[in-house]
UniProtKB/TrEMBL annotation:
It comes from Isoptericola hypogeus. PANTHER family: BINDING OXIDOREDUCTASE, PUTATIVE (AFU_ORTHOLOGUE AFUA_1G17690)-RELATED (PTHR42973), FAD-BINDING PCMH-TYPE DOMAIN-CONTAINING PROTEIN (PTHR42973:SF39). InterPro entries: BBE (IPR012951), FAD-bd_PCMH (IPR016166), FAD-bd_PCMH-like_sf (IPR036318), FAD-bd_PCMH_sub1 (IPR016167), FAD-bd_PCMH_sub2 (IPR016169), FAD-linked_Oxidoreductase (IPR050416), Oxid_FAD_bind_N (IPR006094). This is FAD-binding oxidoreductase. Keywords: FAD, Flavoprotein, Oxidoreductase. It holds the Pfam family BBE. The keyword Plastid does not apply.
Length: 465
């Protein structure tokens, strides 16, 4: 595979002639280039050779064709939340999909076509006005593009499954600029690969989703003291809860937020993000085991659990730019008190300005789907975890990478897979862990069919078979 041509080798005049007016083109020194190249997470300083902003599928197809013919790498920018800047290659042609944000929602069939550049928050807010939802993550600013293609694990995961479990079809621009309609009947191999295999196979200009009835939910943040018993107890309570309850735990040093009493600032707490999407009348009973854990730990420090629209639970997300994160994702079969004690001791011992272990309890509808039905191959994992450290600069953050790796290694137990959407890098070891065994072989065959030259390589990269 040849490297991308240097920025100057991509003919700007040729690019403009090929693309405008169907897409606007920004190159370094153009007004708007600096703003357009910014992404959400801090510390990512990539300089694409050009940023193309298409208005429609035809504009995307022209941009991909141009890049393919020029031998340039294509990177795709949707919600801009790629955790560690995957897909942000200096010298690549970036296709910015933010202009493709139309939502066509059909209440009668409970299906929707959504533009590939839309955010999860915009989609969920619009669907919520009809009492409907498709499961995405926990953050509204994340793009439906990235989260869907990597899998999608969020606040409705246990009740309604992953995002890919609601995906019905997609419109895809492949590496040679063809536009394909993809679903269970048309290009089924590609449809399988899109459900977890990431941005390896083309640019998705539109997604077609199923929607479920989700009106008000009971959810929000419950903050409690972090002890080995409270961490392990919450994981156990979430695992054995009815599937309408999804719990995402963040074990962390309490930030100086107004809702947290000052005496807790800087001390270890568990921020439990809860979402009960069952009958409101059954909420108290379903949440009782979680509240019992809080009571045994000395009582909730803050209780923000309330009834309200599901879309209201999706956080705005961190403001990028000011801090840089390093992290390591893992799956584990559970977190007992010994593992919880170890993670608390490690969080206490490190001097990172912010550090956290996130634990997303899975099971429920996530585990209903057979392992080989989609390209997400970790259906049986009980918990999806992340260890993260934040620092003021990229260099300082890199200094904590051995620490996050060692802690994740201890917590994963015997599980050696990882979730592509939280991957630190897109290299071969990461890709093999995200896509183990038969999943890898199948993805590599699909890659050979639709992107044999690996034009789409700014991702957890699957090499063509
Ligand atoms: C604050 C935060 C919260 C998060 N919360 C969750 C969560 O709750 N659950 C979860 O599962 N994940 C979560 N994630 C991870 C998130 O799903 C991934 O980082 C995802 O890749 C972001 O998608 P994006 O479109 O915003 O990012 P981008 O950086 O725009 O895209 C990331 C990559 O996805 C691919 N891609 C995106 N859109 C398309 C498209 N239309 N066609 C082809 N390729 C495309 C490209 O390879 C691109 O490089 C979170 C990330 C952050 C930063």
């Amino acid at each position: 595979m040849s490297a991308s041509p240097a920025p100057s080798a991509l003919s700007v005049a040729g690019l403009r002639a090929a693309l405008e007016p169907a897409a606007s083109v920004l190159v370094p020194d153009d007004d708007g280039y600096e703003t357009a190249r910014a992404v959400e997470p801090g510390g990512i300083d990539h300089r694409p050779a050009a940023i193309v902003r298409p208005a429609d599928t035809a504009g995307v197809a022209r941009a991909v064709r141009f890049a393919h013919d020029a031998g340039a790498e294509v990177s795709v920018r949707a919600g801009g939340h790629s955790v560690f800047g995957l897909g942000r290659s200096t010298g690549a042609l970036t296709i910015d999909l933010r202009g493709l944000d139309a939502l066509d929602l059909d209440v009668a069939t409970r299906t929707a076509w959504a533009g590939g550049g839309m955010t999860a928050g915009a989609y969920s807010t619009a669907a919520g006005t009809r009492g409907l939802a498709t499961p995405f993550g926990d953050t509204g600013g994340v793009g439906i593009g990235g989260i869907t293609l990597g899998g999608g694990v969020g606040l409705l995961a246990r009740s309604r499954g992953m995002t890919i479990d609601s995906l019905l079809g997609a419109e895809v621009v492949t590496a040679d600029g063809d536009v394909l309609q993809v679903d269970a009947e048309q290009h089924p191999d590609l449809f399988w690969a899109l459900r977890g295999g990431g941005g390896n196979f083309g640019v998705v200009t539109r997604f077609r989703y199923a929607l479920g009835e989700v009106s008000d939910v009971v959810g929000g943040v419950l903050l409690l003291p972090a002890t080995p018993a409270s961490v392990a107890g919450l994981v156990a309570a979430a695992e054995s809860a009815p599937r309408e309850l999804t719990v995402i735990l963040m074990v962390m040093t309490a930030p100086p937020m107004p809702m947290i009493p000052a005496e807790w600032h800087g001390r270890l707490v568990v921020m439990a993000n809860l979402c009960w999407s069952g009958s409101p009348a059954a909420a108290d009973a379903a949440l009782a085991p979680v509240r019992d854990v809080a009571a045994e730990a000395g009582g909730a420090i803050f209780d923000g659990v309330h009834a309200g629209p599901y879309a209201g639970l999706l956080e705005g997300g961190p403001q990028g730019g000011s801090v840089v994160a390093t992290g390591r994702t893992f799956f584990t079969d559970g977190v007992d008190e010994a593992a919880a004690a170890h993670l608390l001791a490690e969080l206490e011992a490190t001097d990172a300005m912010m550090r956290a272990v996130q634990l997303r309890v899975l099971g429920g509808a996530v585990a209903d789907v057979p392992r080989d039905e989609t390209a997400y191959a970790h259906r049986e994992a009980a918990v999806l975890g992340n260890v993260a450290a934040l620092a003021p600069t990229a260099e300082a953050a890199a200094g904590y990478t051995p620490w996050v790796s060692a802690l994740a290694e201890r917590l994963r137990g015997g599980h050696d897979g990882l979730y592509a959407n939280f991957a630190l890098d897109g290299g071969p070891d990461t890709a093999r862990a995200a896509y183990p065994g038969a999943t890898w072989d199948r993805l590599a065959a699909v890659k050979r069919t639709y992107d044999p030259d690996n034009v789409f390589r700014g991702n957890v990269n699957v090499l063509p078979a």
